[in-house]
């Protein structure tokens, strides 16, 4: 019998839809801390530069968690760009909204509950894309498959 654990089966982010308030708070703390680590800041800056994210763009942040990447992206797309962050976790979306309230990017970001496997968002309308870029930072996993 193969006893190798399935990739992602022990991920803290395997199912974030039913987090208790304490679990949500713990994940938010981890995500916010990780995002401030020097190596992370450098890698993210390079990644976002490679994506050529800049002023005026509309960016979809898939699996936005606490919204820390979305806030970073929003600073790049200002003054008139927009970021939409989606995550299946109601608790993480609530935290992302709270952490973004009263910041310099509050009016540039919308957070919505959503699963990337069933995006409720129109990504293409006629010849014009709704988003210039879609990013997925960190790792997304579900019970059967690994996404990203
Ligand atoms: C490792 S966290 C990364 C959060 C954020 N991108 C960051 O780097 O700080 C992975 C996130 O993906 C979300 N996620 C998991 N499955 C998802 C799915 N099917 N669609 C969209 N987001 C998902 C989780 O709720 C979690 O917030």
Describe this structure in words.
The chain is globular. With 148 residues, it is of the alpha/beta class. The strands form three sheets. The protein has a four-stranded parallel sheet with strand order 3-2-1-6, with helices on one face. It has a two-stranded antiparallel ribbon with strand order 4-5. The chain contains four helices and eight strands; from the N terminus they run ααβαβαββββββ. Mean pLDDT is 84; it is low at 142-148.
CATH first level: Alpha Beta
Radius of gyration: 16 Å
What is the CATH architecture annotation? 3-Layer(aba) Sandwich
Quote the distance from N terminus to C terminus: 28 Å
Task: Give the CATH H-level superfamily.
Answer: Vaccinia Virus protein VP39
Strand segment tally = 8
**Which geometry do the CA atoms define?**
globular
Number of helices: 4
Number of domains: 1
Written as H for each helix and E for each strand, in order along the chain, the element string is: HHEHEHEEEEEE
Query: What do the pLDDT scores average to?
Result: 84
Spatially, the strands of the biggest sheet line up as: 3-2-1-6
**How much helicity do the residues have?**
25-40%
Major sheet:
4 strands, parallel
The bound ligands are:
S-adenosylmethionine
How would you classify the helix and strand content by structural class? alpha/beta
As a percent range, the share of strand residues is 15-25%
User: Poorly predicted ranges (pLDDT <50, ≥5 residues)?
Assistant: 142-148
